[in-house]
Amino acid sequence: MRDPIGLAYLLARAADTIADTSLISPTQRLELLLSLRNLVNGAPDDGTLTERLAQEVADQQSLSDEKVLLESLGGALTVLSQLSDSDRTAVRGIVSTLTQGMEFDLHTFPDESSGRIAALNTLEELDTYTYLVAGCVGEFWTRMTYAHMPGTLKGEPGITLSNGVRFGKALQMTNVLRDCSKDLRIGRCYLPSPMLNRYGLSLEDLLTPGASRRAQPLLFELLRLTLDHYRAAIDYTFAIPARSVRLRLSCLWPVLIGLETLVLLVNNDEWLDPAKISKIGRNKVYRIVAASTLLEPSDRMLRAWIDRLIKRIEARLNG
């Protein structure tokens, strides 16, 4: 299970590096991204893409890890070809879906330096986006668990798979709401236009002082949706038996960190101020990891912890 998941992560991170670099135009990024997807899906590799990546992207990366990652892409593709047929198909599927999410961003939003802002058209579009960039990861993780650790996940497979998708969506919705102020300043508004209209808000309004208060009802509506996704993520986590310590903790940590982030968000009256991002500190993360590791065997104590966080969020939403 570790090999296909690790490889999928490396390929997705390489794709993300291409999609996010502002040093080349969105058109160039999209072209390189689609070429990478084709290589992952088995297109012949004549070395053109790796050469272009070295010249157009890797050489311009200030972060050495990203530079090394792009330069080692050929090796990653070789490892992909050596996986079992089922694992190779799964890795190709997840990387293809994730790159569709990156493609969505490049098609939907203006160039970061254009000074323009665009919003999503519908709530359904936001839901699709969260699937493409995160929900599909929960789906992939679940399928890998069924394939490599059969009998680990309790419950009906269809429900568990759906919960895995919603797990990913919960985490991405958290990112969307937490990072909204920063995304707005590079031209990206993931808040759907119909919701903005319903609350009497324009894209320009979101950049003004006092916008956070005016947009708080919209935030609360999306937080309720996000919290519903977390409930599915919680069910997913407790479908993993306590004896599968690593697997359970790998799900428990993002749930706890995500809910703690929602506590900050729901109480942040300046959530659209880029200087006041709702992000929990490193020491808090360490405490969550330490405490949850100790409590991992106890469903009762873990549920009590999670319930307390949810009640804090709901108290503000309903206050």
UniProtKB/TrEMBL annotation:
Gene3D superfamilies: Farnesyl Diphosphate Synthase
Coiled-coil ranges from the UniProt annotation: none
Record-given protein name: Phytoene synthase
Domain of life (superkingdom): Bacteria
One of the Pfam families matching this protein, by short name: SQS_PSY
GO terms, biological process: farnesyl diphosphate metabolic process
Family annotation (InterPro entries): Isoprenoid_synthase_dom_sf (IPR008949), Squ/phyt_synthse (IPR002060), Trans_IPPS_euk-type (IPR044844)
SUPFAM superfamilies in the cross-refs: Terpenoid synthases
GO MF annotations in UniProt: squalene synthase [NAD(P)H] activity
